[in-house]
Write a structure and sequence with these properties.
mainly alpha
């Protein structure tokens, strides 16, 4: 079963593919954080999603098999 930490509960392989593509990483990232009720993190992903957050998501997906959690709130 897929972990909750991935995009929409998808498997980490599918989430890795989505994280590699900049536009899907940005959209899936902020939607996922808003769905989790993490409004501040969602706004950070919405504003900075095409820069360092995108690179961090790819690294975290390969290394930890979940998306990057910048803020726990």
């Amino acid at each position: 079963m897929a972990k909750q930490n991935d995009y929409f509960g998808l498997s980490w392989i599918i989430s890795l593919i989505l994280a590699i593509i900049p536009v899907t990483s940005w959209v899936c990232g902020f939607i996922t954080r808003f769905m989790e009720g993490k409004w501040v993190s969602g706004l950070i992903r919405l504003i900075f999603g095409f820069t360092i957050v995108w690179i961090l998501d790819i690294i975290w997906m390969v290394w930890k098999k979940s998306i990057c959690r910048i803020l726990p709130c």
